[in-house]
Amino acid sequence: VLDIDSTSSHYIIVVVEMTWEQRMNAAVRAVVRMGIYVGAKVYFIREGYQGMVDGGEENIKEASWESVSSMLQMGGTVIGSARCKEFRSHEGRLKAAHNLVQRGITNLCVIGGDGSLTGANLFREEWSGLLEELVQQGLIDEDAVQKYSALHIVGMVGSIDNDFCGTDMTIGTDSALHRIIEVVDAIMTTAQSHQRTFVLEVMGRHCGYLALVSALACGADWVLIPEMPPEDGWEEKMCQKLSANRAGMKRLNIIIVAEGAIDCNNKPITTDHVKDLVVRCLGFDTRVTILGHVQRGGTPSAFDRILASRMGVEAVIALLETTANTPACVVSLCGNQAVRLPLMECVQMTQEVQKAMDEKKFEEAVKLRGRSFENNLKTYKLLAHRKLESELPHSNFNIAVLNVGAPAAGMNAAVRSAVRVGISEGHKMFAVNDGFEGFYKGQIKEIKWADVGGWTGQGGSLLGTKRTLPAKHVEKIAEQMRAHNINALLVIGGFEAYLGLMELLEARGKYDEFCVPMVMVPATVSNNVPGSDLSIGADTALNAITDTCDRIKQSASGTKRRVFIIETMGGYCGYLASVGGLAAGADAAYIYEEPFDIRDLQSNVEHLTEKMKGAIQRGLVLRNENSNENYTTDFIYQLYSEEGRGVFDCRKNVLGHMQQGGAPSPFDRNFGTKISAKAMLWLTKKMNETFRQGRVFANTEDTCCLLGMRRRALVFQPVVQLKDETDFVHRIPKEQWWLKLRPLMKILAKYKTSYDVSDSGQLEHVVRNIQPKESDPSGAM
């Protein structure tokens, strides 16, 4: 637990020096509030390094708690950002050092890209020399040199390009993907109506991440990125594919071009060149759309707000724990974990990527980008390019895929991925409508490559889904398995899918038909499936909650002080209320996992009353639908209304099923696509391993698994082993990682609480991406 008393002498400063990225506010807010929480004095530096060089009260200003209120939902950065040529010179850095020493500042939190962070590290390395120069010039004395002898730096990466090595995601990338996908979804409707081809250019400088992931998320026909230059003759291949898709009754084509796209001779590929090519060779009606700075603007996504808040708090803790010998570090995201990495190791590897591309070592460049980028690229290759019948392996295996439980955005992307990877592996794919209910009723049909075209952006479940469990119908399901010669099963769904898989596993003793490899992919807005930190659909639901909370809070703008009580879904799982509360800037979130009583409610009301007497105008309280059977949403609304009388008034909203609807977010599309592809490769491997005497026979525990995200990796776990981790009465895991984020939400809402830092404090090293030694195709996923 963080020791607050020992940190009161620290000074922390926030610097933003990334001209282009415009989603820094959540990080700035987190650093300011965490810094104040631990007793530090926090300063803003306005206009990035320019403000540090210029100095003055307007440029270097002490931050207060209220100065970062109501900024979570704002695009841009409230403290400004600018390029600074002067800071690149020794004289400029000397001025900056003098301005910092005058205020006793020796801790910098720098939010920016690799250029900004490299500049910060150079500043740190020169610090002692700069102080000596200031003494010689008579601007500071020897006591100041002793007192401020070391400069500590922690970086956070803010860039929509996601081109910084060492982190899976940079702040701003997810929001940029939201803007891109919103535009692509809108364009697809007009393209379909007019049978057009659209060529879209997306940003990313020399990194193709945005283009690649948006191509995955919208099912683009072709993507051109700098890390994967097309081979000679690519023009003909692309036109052949576009023509084949049109012949297959597809009414539109989408081609995505990264702004840094090049051919194998390092010559730029422009959108106009691609358009002219399509018009000349195919005669298709073709349009070009350059998204430009639309990608940098707008409201930050829920993912970016949570990422920035977590990184900001981690950065403050890292600064408090630094010593004179600690190298400058950068706070990064690895899987689902916040980690610290040496800043210059990350910068050097980022520079190695460009060097590899300049030398035409493109495979090496892809590996240096990291496992996340490489996995995206491999998944795209699996899904985008259909093999000819003569090229397909003939496995003679049949695989059934079904959705079980409530619908979740991203299910269709997962089904599309499964079908296309299965067909690429030579299998025959069968779709089961309406879950286990449709299974025993015989609602099964073969599904082809073209049948799942355009599914990635569709919300809900196009296969249909029901909550029916299989236990009462195992005999009829076994008959259907036998009739269609099903050799493996992919189940996509929530807690019902988990229970259903367990029931099928138990039925193996009675029915040999269930002795086949079976795997479940978690998909539920509640995010309550044991064995996985994340589920398909949860990110879309979080964005729906966050967007609605933003609008609700804005509805009180300019009126008297008001508190909103908002009820979220989730069953007994408080994930949506807690993480949604963190993303929306809630003052409290009531959940089942953290019991509360009338004294807690009273304390929260008093806390809000105190805040409302100051500069705060609006309050936000979230309640999970099953958090307490007696303290209902109505009860909490009436309590707050009565106790806040004369200070604030109350309104309540039940968000309901709007959390399950809508188009899936880019994260859910990508996550569903990748996790389902990995599941299919695993099924292929298991079928080959268990094929004996002309049939598949799999009766061991490790052939019935759940594929889930665990901390930093996707892991296959036998469902039998997950029983002990499950609270079956309340349909939640016994241990949930996100509970560690709740103190963070409370700290940022000005509550005094303890904060567990057991996962913090370890400075790791950048891991170079090395191909797995074994030839397991799923190992690289």
TrEMBL record:
Phosphofructokinase domain segment(s): 24-318, 398-682
Binding site for substrate: S159, I160, D161, R196, M203, G204, R205, E259, R287, H293, V294, Q295, R296
Protein known as: ATP-dependent 6-phosphofructokinase
Regulation: Allosterically activated by ADP, AMP, or fructose 2,6-bisphosphate, and allosterically inhibited by ATP or citrate.
Highest taxon of the lineage: Eukaryota
GO molecular function terms listed in the Swiss-Prot or TrEMBL record: 6-phosphofructokinase activity; AMP binding; ATP binding; fructose-6-phosphate binding; identical protein binding; metal ion binding; monosaccharide binding
Cofactor: Mg(2+)
Ranges where the record places region N-terminal catalytic PFK domain 1: 1-385
Known EC number: 2.7.1.11
Catalytic reaction(s) noted: beta-D-fructose 6-phosphate + ATP = beta-D-fructose 1,6-bisphosphate + ADP + H(+)
GO CC annotations on file: 6-phosphofructokinase complex; membrane
Active site: D161
A Pfam family this chain is assigned to: PFK
Keywords carried by this UniProt record: Allosteric enzyme, ATP-binding, Cytoplasm, Glycolysis, Kinase, Magnesium, Metal-binding, Nucleotide-binding, Transferase
Region called C-terminal regulatory PFK domain 2, residue ranges: 398-781
Single GO biological process annotation from the record: fructose 6-phosphate metabolic process
Taxonomic placement: Eukaryota, Metazoa, Chordata, Craniata, Vertebrata
Chief location: cytoplasm
Family membership noted in the UniProt record: Belongs to the phosphofructokinase type A (PFKA) family. ATP-dependent PFK group I subfamily. Eukaryotic two domain clade 'E' sub-subfamily. Belongs to the phosphofructokinase type A (PFKA) family. ATP-dependent PFK group I subfamily. Eukaryotic two domain clade "E" sub-subfamily.
Annotated PANTHER family: ATP-DEPENDENT 6-PHOSPHOFRUCTOKINASE, PHOSPHOFRUCTOKINASE
